[in-house]
């Protein structure tokens, strides 16, 4: 191996936030770390739950995305040493693929001296992912409002309210984005379209103004959640009743099956415990095992560090103090 070692930390993300289908995303405090260095021969080592089936050759997503950066920049780095650790559950609606794409783009760009702008990386990431919500949140952090016309993505970042917390319930089964999208209708009636435009606009305004009291009504959706409910037993009940158990609002996280609830951080410990019990009990009543996690909104996007090329400290030793227990 030769040249610098680049270490990137990328946050997970939740997308849609209810009505903002393919446009709203928020970074969460759960992470993927990617280490990259030029090498004489490509090696890819993955750590973390569910990562044993990740390709360890040049068919690996991170390797392929890195090569897109090198091609765009007009340089050649055909062989890479890549190590990664991911604590983001795969295919659960928490942006695992988006974090991998963003991490690969940022690492590869840093490896060759950062010739591509953040905006250029965002454009590449959006095209690869097919929508800008998750990649925008993982790249820029905070809450990201974005739009993509198939050619260009634009975004605005919103700072999360300091009292905003999130509790997620992660079912034990996986749900692919493709399957979740197949559940959606090909057309919508005008009333539902207008409903979602209003709710999404209200949610963006509420988040910008810190109006946590409006989140409950602003997170309502008629565009995708009613159709995906059949794939996730218990989801409809949670979305309808979470506010009665201490939540500011609730939504399907991305394509699911994870369900996210927004919580006022100043609420009591007993109120938070009640919400956690409600989520787990509702899913258990449908025969679904799940785990809950408190995941604060993450203020930062992907951050990279340049390590000494002679530093041989293994990835897991470098990040051990940061990995979620």
Would you give an account of this structure?
By secondary structure, the protein is α+β, with helices and mostly antiparallel strands. 34% of the residues lie in helices and 25% in strands. It has helices spanning 61-73, 96-111, 118-129, 133-140, 177-182, 190-209, 215-218, 225-228, 235-241, 269-284, 315-319, and strands spanning 2-15, 24-38, 43-47, 80-86, 143-148, 153-158, 164-171, 249-252, 259-264, 290-294, 303-307. Strands 1, 2, 3, 4, 5, 6 and 11 form a seven-stranded mixed sheet that branches. A four-stranded antiparallel sheet has the order 8-9-7-10. The relative contact order is 0.20.
Number of helices: 11
Reported for the largest beta sheet, the result is:
7 strands, mixed
Q: Give the % helix.
A: 25-40%
Q: What overall geometry do the principal axes of the alpha carbons give?
A: globular
Q: Let me know the average pLDDT.
A: 95
For the secondary structure, the number of strands is 11
End-to-end Cα distance, whole Å, is 31 Å
């Amino acid at each position: 191996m030769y040249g610098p070692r680049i270490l990137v930390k990328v946050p997970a993300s939740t997308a849609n936030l209810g009505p903002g289908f393919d446009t709203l995303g928020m970074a969460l405090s759960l992470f993927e770390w990617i280490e990259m260095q030029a090498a004489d021969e490509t090696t890819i080592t993955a750590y973390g739950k569910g990562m044993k089936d990740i390709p360890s050759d040049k068919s690996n997503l991170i390797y392929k995305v890195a090569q897109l950066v090198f091609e765009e920049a007009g340089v050649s780095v055909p062989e890479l040493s890549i190590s990664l650790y991911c604590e983001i559950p795969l295919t659960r609606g928490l942006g695992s693929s988006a974090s991998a794409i963003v991490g690969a783009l940022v690492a590869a760009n840093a490896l060759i001296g950062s010739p591509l702008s953040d905006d250029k990386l965002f454009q590449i990431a959006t095209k690869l992912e097919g929508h800008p919500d998750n990649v925008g949140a993982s790249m820029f952090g905070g809450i990201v409002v974005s739009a993509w016309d198939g050619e260009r993505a634009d975004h605005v970042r919103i700072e999360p309210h300091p009292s905003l917390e999130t509790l997620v319930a992660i079912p034990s089964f996986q749900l692919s984005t493709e399957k979740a999208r197949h559940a959606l209708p090909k057309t919508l009636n005008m009333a539902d379209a207008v409903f979602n435009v209003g709710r999404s606009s209200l949610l963006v305004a509420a988040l910008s103004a810190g109006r946590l009291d409006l989140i409950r009504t602003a997170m309502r959706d008629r565009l995708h959640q009613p159709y995906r409910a059949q794939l996730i037993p218990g989801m409809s009940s949670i979305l309808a009743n979470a506010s009665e158990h201490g939540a500011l609002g609730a939504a399907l996280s991305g394509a699911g099956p994870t369900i996210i609830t927004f919580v006022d951080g100043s609420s009591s410990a007993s109120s938070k415990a009640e919400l956690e019990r409600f989520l787990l009990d509702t899913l258990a009543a449908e025969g679904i095992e799940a785990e809950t996690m408190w995941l604060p909104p993450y203020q930062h996007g992907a951050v990279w560090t340049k390590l000494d090329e002679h530093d041989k400290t293994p990835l897991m030793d470098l990040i051990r103090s940061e990995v979620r227990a």
